[in-house]
From TrEMBL, chain A:
InterPro entries: Brnchd-chn_aa_trnsp_AzlD. Pfam families: AzlD (PF05437). The chain crosses the membrane at residues 6-24, 36-55, 75-97. This is AzlD domain-containing protein. Keywords: Membrane, Transmembrane, Transmembrane helix.
TrEMBL record, chain B:
This is AzlC family ABC transporter permease. It comes from Motilibacter deserti. It comes from the Bacteria. The chain crosses the membrane at residues 12-34, 134-152, 158-176, 183-201. Keywords: Cell membrane, Membrane, Transmembrane, Transmembrane helix, Transport. It is found in: Cell membrane. Belongs to the AzlC family.
Amino acid sequence: MSVWGAILLTSAGVYLLKLAGLLVPPRALEPPRVRLAATLLPVALLAALVAVQTLSDGRSLTVDARLAGVAAGGLALLLRAPFLVVVAVAAGTAALLRAIA
Amino acid sequence: MTLPADRRRAVLRTSLGVGVATGAYGVSFGALATASGLDVLQACALSLLAFSGASQFAFVGVVSGGGPLLSGTATSVLLGARNGFYGLRIAEILRVRGARRLAAAQLTIDESTAVAVAQPEEAAARLGFWSTGLSIYVLWNLATLVGALGGTAMGDPATWGLDAAAPAAFLALVAPRLQGRRPVLVAVVAAVLALALVPVSPAGVPVMAGALLAVTGAVLVRASTTSAGA
Protein backbone atom coordinates (compact mmCIF):
# COMPACT_ATOMS: atom_id res chain seq x y z
CA MET A 1 0.00 0.00 0.00
CA SER A 2 1.25 3.49 -0.80
CA VAL A 3 1.42 6.29 1.78
CA TRP A 4 -1.45 8.03 -0.02
CA GLY A 5 -3.51 4.84 0.09
CA ALA A 6 -2.93 4.56 3.84
CA ILE A 7 -3.83 8.23 4.36
CA LEU A 8 -7.09 7.89 2.43
CA LEU A 9 -7.97 4.62 4.17
CA THR A 10 -7.25 6.19 7.58
CA SER A 11 -9.33 9.27 6.74
CA ALA A 12 -12.24 7.18 5.46
CA GLY A 13 -12.18 4.98 8.57
CA VAL A 14 -11.98 7.89 11.00
CA TYR A 15 -14.79 9.76 9.17
CA LEU A 16 -17.09 6.75 8.91
CA LEU A 17 -16.79 6.11 12.66
CA LYS A 18 -17.78 9.72 13.34
CA LEU A 19 -20.72 9.39 10.96
CA ALA A 20 -21.76 6.06 12.45
CA GLY A 21 -22.24 7.77 15.81
CA LEU A 22 -24.64 10.26 14.25
CA LEU A 23 -26.55 7.50 12.45
CA VAL A 24 -27.03 4.67 14.94
CA PRO A 25 -29.81 4.75 17.53
CA PRO A 26 -28.50 5.85 20.98
CA ARG A 27 -29.57 2.50 22.46
CA ALA A 28 -26.40 0.93 21.00
CA LEU A 29 -24.39 2.69 23.72
CA GLU A 30 -26.53 1.44 26.59
CA PRO A 31 -24.84 -1.86 27.55
CA PRO A 32 -22.42 -0.87 30.35
CA ARG A 33 -19.66 -3.05 28.87
CA VAL A 34 -19.81 -1.16 25.56
CA ARG A 35 -19.70 2.13 27.45
CA LEU A 36 -16.71 0.95 29.52
CA ALA A 37 -14.77 -0.28 26.50
CA ALA A 38 -15.48 3.02 24.73
CA THR A 39 -14.03 5.08 27.58
CA LEU A 40 -11.02 2.83 28.16
CA LEU A 41 -9.94 2.22 24.54
CA PRO A 42 -8.44 5.69 23.93
CA VAL A 43 -6.72 5.57 27.35
CA ALA A 44 -5.14 2.19 26.55
CA LEU A 45 -4.08 3.15 23.02
CA LEU A 46 -2.55 6.46 24.07
CA ALA A 47 -0.70 4.88 27.03
CA ALA A 48 0.68 2.11 24.79
CA LEU A 49 1.79 4.72 22.24
CA VAL A 50 3.60 6.72 24.94
CA ALA A 51 5.42 3.60 26.17
CA VAL A 52 6.42 2.22 22.77
CA GLN A 53 7.48 5.54 21.28
CA THR A 54 9.52 6.44 24.35
CA LEU A 55 11.25 3.12 24.97
CA SER A 56 11.58 1.26 21.67
CA ASP A 57 13.21 1.70 18.28
CA GLY A 58 10.58 -0.46 16.60
CA ARG A 59 12.44 -3.77 17.03
CA SER A 60 13.80 -3.75 20.57
CA LEU A 61 13.56 -1.82 23.82
CA THR A 62 16.00 1.08 24.18
CA VAL A 63 16.65 3.88 26.63
CA ASP A 64 17.85 7.16 25.11
CA ALA A 65 17.29 10.91 25.23
CA ARG A 66 13.61 10.41 24.44
CA LEU A 67 12.97 9.07 27.95
CA ALA A 68 14.40 12.21 29.54
CA GLY A 69 12.41 14.34 27.10
CA VAL A 70 9.11 12.63 27.84
CA ALA A 71 9.82 12.73 31.59
CA ALA A 72 10.42 16.47 31.34
CA GLY A 73 7.17 16.79 29.37
CA GLY A 74 5.39 14.85 32.12
CA LEU A 75 6.77 17.22 34.71
CA ALA A 76 5.49 20.18 32.68
CA LEU A 77 2.06 18.46 32.60
CA LEU A 78 2.07 18.12 36.37
CA LEU A 79 2.76 21.86 36.55
CA ARG A 80 -0.37 22.34 34.39
CA ALA A 81 1.55 23.62 31.37
CA PRO A 82 -0.49 23.91 28.14
CA PHE A 83 -0.17 21.27 25.39
CA LEU A 84 2.31 23.16 23.20
CA VAL A 85 4.60 23.86 26.17
CA VAL A 86 4.57 20.18 27.17
CA VAL A 87 5.55 19.14 23.66
CA ALA A 88 8.22 21.85 23.37
CA VAL A 89 9.75 20.98 26.75
CA ALA A 90 9.98 17.30 25.76
CA ALA A 91 11.56 18.06 22.39
CA GLY A 92 13.88 20.69 23.84
CA THR A 93 15.14 18.40 26.61
CA ALA A 94 15.86 15.53 24.21
CA ALA A 95 17.55 17.85 21.71
CA LEU A 96 19.68 19.44 24.42
CA LEU A 97 20.82 16.07 25.78
CA ARG A 98 21.83 14.94 22.29
CA ALA A 99 23.66 18.19 21.60
CA ILE A 100 25.81 17.90 24.72
CA ALA A 101 26.27 14.09 24.65
CA MET B 1 -35.90 28.83 21.18
CA THR B 2 -33.36 31.60 20.70
CA LEU B 3 -30.46 32.33 22.96
CA PRO B 4 -30.13 35.68 24.80
CA ALA B 5 -27.37 37.88 23.37
CA ASP B 6 -25.13 37.64 26.44
CA ARG B 7 -25.29 33.82 26.49
CA ARG B 8 -24.58 33.79 22.76
CA ARG B 9 -21.45 35.87 23.29
CA ALA B 10 -20.35 33.69 26.20
CA VAL B 11 -20.68 30.50 24.14
CA LEU B 12 -18.84 32.03 21.17
CA ARG B 13 -16.03 33.22 23.46
CA THR B 14 -15.58 29.73 24.90
CA SER B 15 -15.67 28.17 21.43
CA LEU B 16 -13.08 30.54 20.00
CA GLY B 17 -10.82 30.10 23.02
CA VAL B 18 -10.91 26.34 22.65
CA GLY B 19 -10.51 26.73 18.89
CA VAL B 20 -7.35 28.81 19.16
CA ALA B 21 -5.78 26.63 21.86
CA THR B 22 -6.50 23.40 20.00
CA GLY B 23 -5.91 24.69 16.49
CA ALA B 24 -2.47 25.94 17.48
CA TYR B 25 -1.11 22.52 18.14
CA GLY B 26 -1.78 21.65 14.53
CA VAL B 27 1.67 23.24 14.15
CA SER B 28 3.24 20.38 16.07
CA PHE B 29 1.32 17.84 14.01
CA GLY B 30 2.43 19.42 10.72
CA ALA B 31 6.06 19.61 11.81
CA LEU B 32 6.08 16.04 13.12
CA ALA B 33 4.37 14.70 9.99
CA THR B 34 6.86 16.16 7.53
CA ALA B 35 9.84 15.49 9.81
CA SER B 36 8.84 11.83 9.84
CA GLY B 37 8.66 11.49 6.08
CA LEU B 38 5.26 12.66 4.86
CA ASP B 39 5.22 15.50 2.35
CA VAL B 40 3.38 18.78 2.96
CA LEU B 41 0.35 17.73 0.90
CA GLN B 42 0.05 14.43 2.78
CA ALA B 43 0.23 16.17 6.16
CA CYS B 44 -2.48 18.64 5.07
CA ALA B 45 -4.64 15.84 3.65
CA LEU B 46 -4.65 14.08 7.02
CA SER B 47 -5.76 17.26 8.79
CA LEU B 48 -8.43 18.06 6.19
CA LEU B 49 -9.82 14.55 5.79
CA ALA B 50 -9.16 12.63 9.01
CA PHE B 51 -9.40 15.71 11.28
CA SER B 52 -8.86 13.98 14.61
CA GLY B 53 -5.67 15.00 16.42
CA ALA B 54 -4.85 11.82 18.32
CA SER B 55 -5.55 9.64 15.25
CA GLN B 56 -3.32 11.81 13.08
CA PHE B 57 -0.44 11.77 15.58
CA ALA B 58 -0.84 8.00 15.89
CA PHE B 59 -0.69 7.45 12.13
CA VAL B 60 2.47 9.52 11.82
CA GLY B 61 3.98 7.96 14.95
CA VAL B 62 3.52 4.36 13.87
CA VAL B 63 4.57 4.97 10.28
CA SER B 64 7.70 6.92 11.26
CA GLY B 65 8.65 4.21 13.77
CA GLY B 66 9.06 1.88 10.81
CA GLY B 67 5.71 0.21 11.30
CA PRO B 68 3.77 -1.08 8.32
CA LEU B 69 1.32 1.47 6.87
CA LEU B 70 -1.64 -0.77 7.58
CA SER B 71 -0.95 -0.88 11.33
CA GLY B 72 -0.65 2.92 11.31
CA THR B 73 -4.10 3.01 9.74
CA ALA B 74 -5.53 0.45 12.16
CA THR B 75 -4.18 2.20 15.28
CA SER B 76 -5.39 5.54 13.99
CA VAL B 77 -8.90 4.31 13.16
CA LEU B 78 -9.23 2.50 16.51
CA LEU B 79 -8.32 5.72 18.29
CA GLY B 80 -11.03 7.46 16.26
CA ALA B 81 -13.67 5.05 17.56
CA ARG B 82 -14.35 7.37 20.49
CA ASN B 83 -15.64 10.01 18.08
CA GLY B 84 -18.41 7.58 17.16
CA PHE B 85 -19.52 7.55 20.78
CA TYR B 86 -19.46 11.34 20.90
CA GLY B 87 -21.63 11.26 17.79
CA LEU B 88 -24.41 9.52 19.69
CA ARG B 89 -24.69 12.52 22.04
CA ILE B 90 -24.20 15.07 19.25
CA ALA B 91 -27.02 13.46 17.23
CA GLU B 92 -29.42 14.07 20.12
CA ILE B 93 -28.31 17.69 20.51
CA LEU B 94 -28.25 18.69 16.83
CA ARG B 95 -31.04 16.56 15.31
CA VAL B 96 -29.65 17.22 11.81
CA ARG B 97 -30.19 15.39 8.53
CA GLY B 98 -28.70 15.30 5.03
CA ALA B 99 -25.67 17.42 4.17
CA ARG B 100 -25.64 19.05 7.62
CA ARG B 101 -25.30 15.64 9.22
CA LEU B 102 -22.36 14.81 6.94
CA ALA B 103 -20.67 18.10 7.97
CA ALA B 104 -21.50 17.60 11.65
CA ALA B 105 -19.85 14.16 11.53
CA GLN B 106 -16.54 15.62 10.40
CA LEU B 107 -16.60 18.16 13.25
CA THR B 108 -17.43 15.57 15.93
CA ILE B 109 -14.20 15.47 17.96
CA ASP B 110 -13.14 15.69 21.63
CA GLU B 111 -13.29 19.47 21.95
CA SER B 112 -16.49 20.28 20.02
CA THR B 113 -18.30 17.56 21.98
CA ALA B 114 -16.91 18.82 25.29
CA VAL B 115 -18.07 22.40 24.66
CA ALA B 116 -21.49 21.26 23.41
CA VAL B 117 -22.31 18.95 26.28
CA ALA B 118 -21.13 21.53 28.83
CA GLN B 119 -23.94 23.94 27.84
CA PRO B 120 -27.12 23.94 29.95
CA GLU B 121 -29.49 24.99 27.12
CA GLU B 122 -29.93 23.07 23.89
CA ALA B 123 -29.61 26.20 21.72
CA ALA B 124 -26.27 26.97 23.40
CA ALA B 125 -25.14 23.37 22.95
CA ARG B 126 -25.86 23.56 19.20
CA LEU B 127 -24.08 26.90 18.85
CA GLY B 128 -21.17 25.61 20.93
CA PHE B 129 -20.77 22.51 18.77
CA TRP B 130 -20.74 24.34 15.43
CA SER B 131 -18.64 27.31 16.51
CA THR B 132 -16.05 25.18 18.31
CA GLY B 133 -15.91 22.58 15.53
CA LEU B 134 -15.60 25.13 12.74
CA SER B 135 -13.02 27.32 14.47
CA ILE B 136 -10.84 24.29 15.25
CA TYR B 137 -11.25 22.94 11.70
CA VAL B 138 -10.05 26.21 10.13
CA LEU B 139 -7.20 26.86 12.60
CA TRP B 140 -6.04 23.23 12.79
CA ASN B 141 -5.67 23.08 9.02
CA LEU B 142 -3.89 26.43 8.75
CA ALA B 143 -1.57 25.44 11.60
CA THR B 144 -0.84 22.07 9.96
CA LEU B 145 0.27 23.83 6.79
CA VAL B 146 2.54 26.19 8.73
CA GLY B 147 4.03 23.33 10.76
CA ALA B 148 4.47 21.12 7.71
CA LEU B 149 6.36 23.84 5.82
CA GLY B 150 8.53 24.41 8.91
CA GLY B 151 9.09 20.69 9.45
CA THR B 152 10.37 20.17 5.91
CA ALA B 153 13.10 22.73 6.55
CA MET B 154 14.28 21.08 9.76
CA GLY B 155 16.16 18.00 8.55
CA ASP B 156 16.75 15.09 10.94
CA PRO B 157 13.87 15.10 13.47
CA ALA B 158 16.03 13.57 16.24
CA THR B 159 18.34 16.61 16.32
CA TRP B 160 15.34 18.71 17.33
CA GLY B 161 14.03 16.14 19.78
CA LEU B 162 10.92 15.64 17.68
CA ASP B 163 11.00 11.89 18.40
CA ALA B 164 10.37 12.83 22.04
CA ALA B 165 7.68 15.33 21.05
CA ALA B 166 5.29 12.67 19.72
CA PRO B 167 5.13 10.51 22.89
CA ALA B 168 4.93 13.71 24.97
CA ALA B 169 1.93 14.77 22.87
CA PHE B 170 0.27 11.40 23.57
CA LEU B 171 1.04 11.81 27.25
CA ALA B 172 -0.66 15.21 27.26
CA LEU B 173 -3.68 13.71 25.47
CA VAL B 174 -4.04 10.78 27.87
CA ALA B 175 -3.41 12.70 31.11
CA PRO B 176 -6.89 14.27 31.48
CA ARG B 177 -8.45 10.80 31.02
CA LEU B 178 -6.49 9.24 33.88
CA GLN B 179 -9.10 9.86 36.56
CA GLY B 180 -9.92 7.01 38.91
CA ARG B 181 -8.26 3.68 39.53
CA ARG B 182 -9.54 1.78 36.48
CA PRO B 183 -8.23 4.07 33.71
CA VAL B 184 -4.83 4.29 35.42
CA LEU B 185 -4.64 0.51 35.75
CA VAL B 186 -5.68 -0.01 32.12
CA ALA B 187 -3.10 2.56 30.98
CA VAL B 188 -0.28 0.84 32.90
CA VAL B 189 -1.27 -2.66 31.72
CA ALA B 190 -1.58 -1.50 28.09
CA ALA B 191 1.84 0.20 28.25
CA VAL B 192 3.58 -2.81 29.84
CA LEU B 193 1.97 -5.31 27.45
CA ALA B 194 2.87 -3.17 24.44
CA LEU B 195 6.51 -2.94 25.57
CA ALA B 196 6.64 -6.69 26.21
CA LEU B 197 5.38 -7.31 22.67
CA VAL B 198 7.98 -5.07 20.98
CA PRO B 199 10.78 -7.67 20.66
CA VAL B 200 8.46 -10.47 19.56
CA SER B 201 6.05 -8.86 17.08
CA PRO B 202 6.25 -6.73 13.93
CA ALA B 203 6.37 -2.92 14.40
CA GLY B 204 2.94 -1.38 14.81
CA VAL B 205 1.39 -4.50 16.34
CA PRO B 206 2.43 -3.95 20.01
CA VAL B 207 0.42 -0.75 20.50
CA MET B 208 -2.80 -2.16 19.11
CA ALA B 209 -2.47 -5.59 20.70
CA GLY B 210 -1.44 -4.19 24.09
CA ALA B 211 -4.35 -1.74 24.14
CA LEU B 212 -6.96 -4.27 23.02
CA LEU B 213 -5.78 -6.87 25.55
CA ALA B 214 -5.85 -4.31 28.39
CA VAL B 215 -9.36 -3.11 27.51
CA THR B 216 -10.68 -6.65 27.06
CA GLY B 217 -9.21 -7.57 30.43
CA ALA B 218 -10.85 -4.59 32.14
CA VAL B 219 -14.24 -5.39 30.59
CA LEU B 220 -14.01 -9.07 31.60
CA VAL B 221 -12.93 -8.20 35.15
CA ARG B 222 -15.85 -5.81 35.45
CA ALA B 223 -18.27 -8.45 34.12
CA SER B 224 -17.09 -11.03 36.65
CA THR B 225 -17.13 -8.61 39.61
CA THR B 226 -20.63 -7.33 38.80
CA SER B 227 -22.05 -10.83 38.36
CA ALA B 228 -20.38 -11.95 41.61
CA GLY B 229 -21.82 -8.93 43.40
CA ALA B 230 -25.33 -9.44 42.02
